[in-house]
Structure formats: structure tokens, C-alpha cells
Amino acid sequence: MRTTNRRLEALSLLQAHPGISATQLAARLGVTERTARRDIAELREVGYRIDGEAGRTGGYRLASGTAMPPLLLDADEVAAVALGLRTAVTVDGLETAAITALAKLAQVVPSRWRTRLSALAQVETLPLHSTNRDVLIPAALACRAGEAIRIRRRESAVDVQPHRLVTVRRRWYLVACPRDSTRWRVYALERIKHVQPLGTRFPAPEPPTDAAMFVADSLAHGPWRHQVRIRVHTSADLVRDLVDPTVATVIDHDDDCELHFGTDDLDWAARWLTYLNLDLDVLEPAELNDHLRGLGRWLTDRY
Q1: What total of structural domains would you count in the chain?
Q2: By three-state DSSP, how is residue 271 classified?
Q3: Three-state SS string across 85-137, please?
Q4: Could you tell me if residue 142 is inside a domain?
Q5: N or C: which end of the chain has fewer CB within 10 A?
Q6: Does 40 map to a domain?
């Protein structure tokens, strides 16, 4: 057995059998105790903290250190880690790290294990149904590295400084600042056809402190034809329980609250407000009242 392979095997034995003795280690490796002890010394030199205890009940144990050295995982452990990372994709603040960790994992696993990883790619906890992996992974890596990218959407391209990836309703959004801009924007990844790393970093303003809230606010108040303000005669807490923050923002007042949202379709707005079943008044736009009255007449005539 080559020296490097033997030491990797020794590391695997230490992970699988905490407290293994030098005698047991040597027997499993097919070497002398002296060689086994030398392998332990070499592993310590490259960053593994290995504690040793003398005596009949003593042995070697891997201990936590100041840095995380490489780990040796078998096929089942790789599958478990991959599944856990796919679940982490849905956890606010861990989306980008989970995707980049998965990409690194896929690069280094033995080819015979990749079929299992490909099967895990279909797990429903990973919201990739509308996003190209060739777009998602380089975007995630750029966010982690702080490296500018060129994103191509249909026929146009824009150079941006990425900040963070966020998932909303099982869809991916990129928070990024266009080159020479002073404002952060939100880009839907499903509309991006290609991502090209630029190998540089663009100047950008201070990023949003809460990227998820920034995306939610952008979706609720984006470039819509109509900006809607509604006075709701109940507590803001009750309304927040009913309203998705990506649809509308709740503004708290003393005895009631306001709903602010954008839409291109006032008929949809009338139906949605009716669905909420709340006592409300339209502050703007005034024409929304006509759509509410029209919906009421249609319901009366129909039922």
C-alpha cells in the first residue's frame, strides 16, 4: 500500500473507530506499530488533531482543532451529506453556501457515486424546477467569491456585482448591483440564460442587511403599472398572518394598518382583497373601487 493511501486509510480508521490502539491500527494497515505511529505523526503535521492515551484502554482519537481538515466519507455518508445540503437550500441565509458546497462535493466524489448524487438532485426540497443548474451554480459561486458576473437574459446582457441568492416560493432570485449603479436590484434566475464570471469585483453600495426581505419587498413593489394603498380596519398582526410579504407590505398604525402592493391587474387586486375578507377602504388608485364594485355586481348576479 502506498504511503499516501495508507495514511488516508489510517484517517478513515480513526474516524470509524475512536480509541483505536496503535496495535490495532498497525494490524488493520498491515504494517508495524512503528510505521503506524509514524503515520499518526504525519497526519498531525498536516493539520489533524489526534489525541493519544496510554494504557490498555487508551488509543488514538480525532479531536476538534482550530481548522477543519479534509474528511473521508463513504458512499452512504456522501449521500446523507448531499441530502442534508439540499434541505439546507430552503433555510434562509444558507441557500448560497449549500449550493456551492454541493457543487464542490460533486466535483470530488468518485465517478461511481455520481449516479446517487444525480438521483438526489430530484429531491423536492431543492427548488430547481424552473432554474438551469448551469446558471444557479456559477451564480452561487460568484456570490461566495464576491466576483462580478455577466448575466444574459434573452438578447441583452448586464454586468453585475452579486450579493446573495434567495429562494421565494421555490424560485431563485439574485440580489446584485449593476456595474456603475448605486442601487441593488433583484433578478429572477429562471429568466437568466447564461452566467459568465468576469474575474474582477465592481464597486457597489452597502448591500441590503436582509436580502430575503429585500427580495420580498421588490416582488411586492416592483415595476408594476399600479401602486395600491389600502386602509385595513384591523390590527397589523392579524393582516401579516394573512398576507405573504412577497405580495404586499403591511404598514402599522395605532388602531389599524395599511396594505401597500403593486400590480398590473386591478381585477386581480379586487379578487385578492375580497379573498382576504377584511373591512377595508381603497386609498389609491381610485379606479380600484370600480373593479371591486364590478366584482360585487357579478357575484350578486351570479349567485
Answers
A1: 4
A2: helix
A3: HHHHCCCCCCHHHHHHHHHHHHHHCCHHHHHHHHHHCCCCCCCCCCCCHHHHH
A4: yes
A5: C
A6: yes
Measured distance CA(13)–CA(59) in Å, rounded: 12
3-state secondary structure of 295: helix
Residue 237: its pLDDT value, please? 93
Beta carbons of 285 and 252 less than 8 angstroms apart? no
- 207 class by beta-carbon count within 10 Å (0-12 exposed, 13-18 middle, 19+ buried): middle
What CATH number does the domain containing 150 carry?
2.30.30
pLDDT of residue 124: 37
- Residues (pLDDT < 70) of the chain are 1, 55-58, 65-72, 83, 86-95, 107-108, 112-131
Q: What is residue 287's three-state secondary structure?
A: helix
What whole-number distance in Å separates Cα of residue 162 and Cα of residue 164? 6
Rounded to whole angstroms, how far apart are CA atoms 179 and 177? Answer: 7
pLDDT in tens, 254-263: 889 999 999 9
Q: What is the pLDDT of residue 13?
A: 83
Residue 57 DSSP code: T
CB atoms under 10 Å from CB of 160, counted, come to 25
The residue segments making up the domain with residue 147 are: 133-219
In a domain, 126, yes or no: no
Q: Among 219, 251, 270, give the residue marking a domain's end.
A: 219
Residue 16 domain-assigned?
A: yes
- Candidates 12, 4, 49, 45; CA nearest to 28 is 12
